[in-house]
Amino acid sequence: MGYNFLEIEKKWQNYWAKNQTFKASNKSELPKYYVLDMFPYPSGAGLHVGHPLGYIASDIYARYKRHKGFNVLHPQGYDSFGLPAEQYAIQTGQHPNLTTEANINRYRKQLDKMGFSFDWSREVRTSQADFYKWTQWIFLLLFDSYYCKTTNSAQPIKKLVSHFETNGNANLNAVSDEKIISFTPDDWTAFSYKEKQEVLLMYRLAYLSESEVNWCSELGTVLANDEIVNGVSERGGYMVTKKKMKQWSMRIGAYAERLLEGLNQLDWPESLKEMQRNWIGKSIGANVRFNIQDYKGVIEVFTTRPDTLFGVTFMTLAPEHPLVNTIISDQQKVEVLAYVEASAKRSERDRMSDVKSISGVFTGAYAIHPFTKEPIPIWIGDYVLAGYGTGAVMAVPCGDQRDFNFAKHFNIQIRNIFEGADITTEAFVEKGKTKIKDSDFLNGLAYKEAMIKVIKRLEQEGSGEGTINYRLRDAIFSRQRYWGEPIPIYYKNGIPVALKTENLPLVLPEVEQYLPTPEGAPPLGNAPTWAWDTISEKVVPNARLNETSVFPLELNTMPGWAGSSWYFNRYMDADNQEAFVGKEAVNYWQNVDLYIGGSEHATGHLLYSRFWQKFLFDLNLLPVDEYAKKLINQGMILGSSAFIYRKKGTQEYVSKNLIKDFEVESIRVDISMVNNSDELDLEALRKWQPQFSTASFVLENGVYHVEREVEKMSKSKYNVVNPDLICEQYGADTLRMYEMFLGPIEQAKPWNTAGISGVHSFLKKLWKLYHNSEGFYVSEGSASKESLKSLNQTIKKVTEDIENFSFNTCISSFMICVNELTAQKCNERGVLEPLAILLAPFAVHLSEELWQLMGHDTSISTVSFPIYEPSYLVESSKNYPVSFNGKMRFTIELSLKLNPQEIEEIIMKDERTQLQLQGRNPKKVIVVPGKIINIVG
RNA sequence: GCCUUGGUGGCGGAAUUGGUAGACGCGUUGGAUUCAAAAUCCAAUUCUUUCGGGAGUGUGGGUUCGAUUCCCACCCAAGGUACCA
Fold first, then answer.
1. What is the pTM of this model?
2. Residue ranges in chain A modelled with pLDDT below 50
3. b/e per residue, A494-531, with b = 16+ CB within 10 A?
4. ipTM of the complex, rounded to two decimals
């Protein structure tokens, strides 16, 4: 009677599915607890061993909470729109929906094998019309809202219109495009329909605007920074340039302050909150306007150091700055245009990371200092980014290192305005450390006073004002892709008009080609008729566009983060046809109590979803404005890629430690052909790809050693490890416990199966505890004091560890416990029954089996978690007449006459040895010389 | 570059508030059992040593009676860096 994990696991997986054991109810007397995983993108490579890490952790906690008497919601679904399915469709012509469906089915099988306690009746898929209907619905709400700074919330656009009708845009405290010009109520009434719509677009939370994208004309498409390598496209190696395009954007900037504030109340990792804070990047400073010599325009700059205004010796514009073309002098024209063109080819990331090479060019124009009226040369430099602030900076080389380097490099004047500061080799950047000099009315002032005074003067003279600036940019919401949610907008004479909500979903059309159209329009342009008939209120096949009733639909689709920005609310009420989530359901579940997912989403999904939540909260559609109370980042499980070395120009491969004698290139090979000692299975390699079938190998001691490198798991890197094999070989319970035993969940670690046998033999030992040579055997007698002590120590440790998500140390405690009970020959129900419940969140199938063997006919998941009995841990001792349980602290006053060495000698000889006799863990002795001795156990 | 995280035996990792560094597991070595193997059980296992000791938590400094833990500088690795999800 061995531990037959295959049979046990299958049995209980079927049992749970049949009995719907983990189906959550929206009505319950019990307190609610919502445990959420970040839903996976169903990739073609299948689920790999990295995915379950977070799911196992959340599953343990969800199961634990059920034992603790909570009504637990633990759902799962698929983020099923995405680029890989589309790429595959482009290559093969297969509809992404087919690929996606196949991948989802595979994922589901794999997930089921691991015994997760998901409530599958609430599954969502972002690419399904009954889900994205509501994504489109939320988009329309955003389109139909603006941000009112007085109420500090989103408001319906109707309110804005009525404000315009009575006041124009005077006294309006709303977030808008910067270029808005003021108008009166009469102006508004006189505006044409088109003009009115254009004005409203400047306020809408979902709006159209010109934004800059990476355009690849060869591919006829827009590329992500990710798809650009060394300035050319990853696919094909074509040239990529910056191009302005009309794009949908989300005015997330309106929520910058609330997104920042909201972080304080969240139980999220401090590091992740810090990342979001930095991403939002609030900085307080001033906008300063400089007139331009012999030209009537102004340059507006944002600076966090207006106190250094008298240290300005030049200005720098981003190469994309709109004024560049108009202000350049004729002599400089050729040079400047060449520079602008060159920097258009560099990605923003390149420009930011390359700080060592300083580049720039003088425009030939001069700005005028607002106070001294001195001329200031205007330069262009690509260290200034168009997307941040105003795209222009006032350069103060004495107080900013980048300005300093730029000035030194181009031999521009540096003026020192800091008392006693040495600026011969570097800028003096510490604010508030000294006083300001040579600065007219700011002389002798420190940083703070100078800031206040200069901003006041700027405002008086109309050449600037105090400003708060956020680094957070509005999020571009258009994608030139096929496989995403269609944007429910049509264009009437070039003006975007929203579909009516009752006409949703706007279903993704069939196309023959998933590539952009030959004219460079997004793939939806390939649809036979992607047009909206306003009379029948339908997409009408073969209808012709006309001026009166049939209008072109938006060709862009929504980005990947659209569906994931609200899916967690859908789980609460996944079948609701009338609303994105029912009032009753959302009032019961409120929000997510525990969210587990990777930190790679810190400034993407985790920020956008907070934004949507706050928006929906503003419209009174949700009861809370933060959706995830507690968040834990599971570290990524990294793949360990393998490389072999080929002698250049030959079919001869050289083992890792012998390459120094040859000129070699490295080639990736599949990780499944390499064992734990980095030895390559040559036979497998020969069969793997035809190019290796005739290869020869230079071996060391008869084996070929590969080079290893740790990186993200991905199909293209041949380093994906499939959990199915491990489930077959060791069982899901072993896999679950092993992944948790690998280390702290927050920590990233490379996958390695080296230690899995230890966890597996633990489960075998556990099985043996409940069996004797005849078969299952649990005694009804009373357990020994020793066994009860082991049990209660374990209950205490396990409970604490689960609450702290310290699952690796928790499993260590289980191992110690089982070893102790085995040594004690414990077989009493009084110990073995609680032990099975303790293990139920971890070894989910095995504990159900043992529970049944012990004569229970319901699932172990409904049983209360054991509570430890402190009295079993109390121990009396001859040496120490003191009992201890858990943390213990003695403070013993010693004679002050002894010197530290003498004290130490006494302690080392006596107390320490005595204390070491007690308990399982050695005790620590602390000696504080001359004063107190603490003995901490 | 910038933001975030991490660096401890042959390996994954533990160490509560600054107090015996290396829990637990893998691996290795030795032993028991076996005709043998698998499985199982027991013991040892940071390195070094002239067996007295000595060194040791990425590197170099600092604070402290005492530092894996706190501070400063640096090196290395991973994640993010706005159209990968």
1. 0.89
2. 875-937
3. ebbbbbeeeebbbebbebeebbbbeeeebbbbbbebbb
4. 0.94
